[in-house]
Hints:
Order of helices and strands: HEHHEEEEHHHHHEEEEHE
Oligomer: single chain
Structural class: alpha+beta
Amino acid sequence: MTSPTGADPRLAPPPRERRHTLYFLEAIRDFSPVFLDTEVDATRLLADRAAARAAGQRRSVVGYLLVAAGGVLARHPAANSAYRGGPRPRVAAFPTVSGKVTLDRTLGGTRVVLSTVVPEPHTAGLAEVQRRLDRVLDGDPAELPEFAGIRALHRLSWLRGRLRFARAARDLRLRPLITGTFAVTSLGHRPVDGFHSVGGTTVTLGVGRIVERPVVRDGAIVAAPVFRLSLAFDHRVIDGAEAADVLTEIRAALEEWPAPGDDGAPGGATGEATAGQAGTPVTSEATA
């Protein structure tokens, strides 16, 4: 049967470069997401970023969020966990914190979502976190070793790739390396005020654009730069009260930036980095 225009649509397999995203979406079908959001006053973040820019340093909102959320998740071990369903359900409470960041990149001529995992961002410090982000943002995803696993997955047949991804996704021991223990995704570079996403982790944070809006300070209405911060949580792992605590504490950490003693240097955000942490390479995973 032909289409109303008289021309049949062109049918083709999905691009190989997007297979990891399709595998990921299949793997998270059993999630039970609930969504929260709040508004963050970015006045102090922007002042800190302007000072860094004047000193020739790059700062991104995602970097601030990774450091702030890492510290909060370290204080909330129940939220820094993961769930595996089935006849013998299991919950894994992770001893370390790692943040997954999604990236808008082009691979093999196709626009795709890639992601990278930053281990212990709250102890690595803002400067080190930004350095790791810059590496994967500025490098070629067809060459970067961080994305070698994704490229290898694309070379497999559809069935073999799907099975390999599903097997890895069910292994709770691999979650901190593959999906991180929490996820951050941002569309703030576009006129998007807010959105909600499920990143394959118990807690996923979404960041919208920073815009001037009216806020009340000391009883007066003034203009201030604000952005929407969303939090999606897996209800199988935590309940709404815990998730609300996490979101509230992340908001406070961002609005009160910098944390005491933080100068942007590695280890300055919430304490000194332990040996080896600051130099841990960024790992990547084959998920969105």
